[in-house]
Amino acid sequence: MKQTEPPSSNARFKCPLFLIGKDSRGNWVVQDEAGSCGGLFIDRAQALRFAMFENGNRPQAVIMVPDVFELGIGRTATTAGHSPATAAAAKERQVA
User: Fold this and answer.
1) Where are the alpha helices (DSSP H) in 1-96?
2) pLDDT tens digits for the chain (96 residues)?
3) Which long-range contacts (CB under 8 A, 24 or more apart) does 88-93 make?
C-alpha cells in the first residue's frame, strides 16, 4: 500500500481557498490565498490533485485563474496586472 504525506495545512479544521493557473513560462501554479502553501507542476491534473489533497478534497475551494499566475510563497496570491482584491472577488463569485 502506498503511503502519502499528510497535507501541509490542517485541512480537517479549515478549508483554504486554492488558486490554480499558468505562469509566464507555461508551468501550472497552485497557491493558497494566504501564500503559505503552493507549488509548480508540469500539468493541470497534478496541480489540481495537489490542491484537492491540501484542501481536504473540496472542489468548491479551488479556483482556476484565467490570467498569468506567478507563484509567490509568503505573500498574498495575485495574478499578473491584478491586485490581491482579484482573489477576494473570485472567492465571492465562487461562494455565490
Assistant:
1) 44-54, 85-95
2) 556 666 655 444 467 899 999 999 999 999 998 888 999 999 999 999 999 999 999 999 999 999 999 998 776 656 665 444 445 555 555 544
3) 90/19, 90/63, 90/65, 91/17, 91/33, 91/63
pTM above 0.70, yes or no: no
65, three cell numbers = 485563474
Q: How many helices and strands (H and E) does the chain possess?
A: 2, 4
Residue in the structure block whose three cell numbers are 486554492: 18
